[in-house]
Design brief:
Blueprint: E1 3-8, E2 10-12, E3 15-20, H1 22-28, E4 36-42, E5 45-56, E6 62-65, H2 68-74, E7 81-88, H3 102-109, H4 112-120, H5 123-134, H6 139-153, E8 158-160, E9 163-165
Antiparallel strand pairs: 1-7, 2-3, 3-6, 4-5, 4-7, 5-6, 8-9
Length: 169
């Protein structure tokens, strides 16, 4: 780990995070302005560092959002003072984590507007959608979510994956 510092876990909205100051982030990757892939340990946990993206705050600093798995492994909560260890994750590759399910690619092929919407999505959103589909357990859930996905990707307005979609975004 290239960077080690102490900080308090704070809350931004409903999300626990640690603030990474601009001069600290510059030690990981100078002049970086987009989400920065890092390996993270909080109080030395988890044993195998977790993969997280630091999210830019707009002033050169970043938010290190701490998901439940990392907080559980480190036995920490909002308000705790923690030891943070970060390293730039040079092995990170953006884009979808796995192949597109055949049932989704076939549905996109039959719906040109949705296919165009899918092509316009940034890699991170595609990854999010494919992960969402990968967690579906039943055929009914898959059919219901496929219908919603095609609707919003084709430009429809609706809530899908806990967000409001409009014009394919």
């Amino acid at each position: 780990m290239k960077l080690r510092f102490r900080a308090a876990i704070a809350l931004r909205g409903i999300n626990p995070y640690v603030h990474v100051r601009a001069h600290q982030a510059a030690r990981l990757q100078p002049a970086w302005r987009k989400p920065m892939p890092v390996l993270v340990q909080i109080n030395g946990a988890p044993e195998t560092p977790g993969r997280v993206n630091l999210m830019p705050a707009g002033d050169g600093s970043f938010y290190l959002y701490l998901d439940a798995a990392i907080r559980k492994a480190s036995d920490t909560k909002v308000g705790d003072m923690v030891q943070v260890a970060l390293g730039f994750d040079a092995d990170y590759r953006g884009g979808p984590a796995g192949p597109m399910p055949r049932w989704f690619s076939m549905a996109l092929a039959k719906n040109p507007a949705a296919k165009k919407g899918w092509a316009a999505l940034p890699p991170s959103r595609k990854k999010e959608v494919l992960r969402h589909f990968g967690r579906l357990k039943t055929a009914e859930a898959r059919a219901r979510n496929l219908e919603q996905a095609l609707h919003v990707l084709a430009g429809g307005k609706a809530r899908f994956m806990a967000r409001a979609w409009s014009d394919g975004r």
